[in-house]
Design goal:
The chain is of the alpha+beta class. Helix content is 47%, strand content 20%.
Length: 153
């Protein structure tokens, strides 16, 4: 094998190893952020994938009443990015606001804005679903039949 081919192989191997190690660090950062946000309440996660521009990963925490208690966002192109707290969204403060107010704001977005802020929308909608899920479990489905008691022996 020629020296040039060996060099190309070694460079490719080194890049592969760097990517794997960087991915491991990014997963560890994600786990820490989830634990940190979970201490603030229920957590919703959303993401916007970027093709040529950077994407983002959004973590939103709220209490059981639907009041936002914290938001962290990871934006960037490389594994060197970390989660950073966000105080507001388009001039609207996060902490202390209800998720319903942000859902109403998202309703006013056009298609382009919805695509650009998809991560925030997904995270807030995930929280809405999580908070309403207990209500859905309490209601009986239409046509539900009471189970018959087991015959006594």
């Amino acid at each position: 094998m020629s020296n040039e081919l060996k060099l190309i192989f070694l460079v490719a191997l080194a890049l592969f190893v760097m990517q794997a190690v960087g991915g491991w660090f990014q997963i560890q950062n994600y786990k820490k952020a989830i634990r940190r946000m979970h201490k603030l309440g229920n957590v919703g996660v959303g993401q916007t994938k970027g093709r040529f521009l950077s994407g983002n990963l959004v973590l939103v925490a709220c209490d059981s009443a639907g009041v936002i208690t914290g938001v962290e966002v990871m934006e960037g192109l490389t594994f060197l990015t970390h989660f950073k707290p966000r105080k507001d969204f388009l001039g609207h403060p996060f902490v202390g606001a209800s998720i319903d107010s942000f859902l109403a704001l998202f309703e006013t977005f056009d298609k382009k804005q919805r695509k650009r802020h998809k991560g925030y929308i997904q995270a807030i909608e995930a929280l809405e679903l999580r908070l309403k899920k207990p209500e859905l479990l309490e209601t009986e489905p239409v046509g539900a039949v009471e189970p018959e008691p087991a015959p006594s022996v």
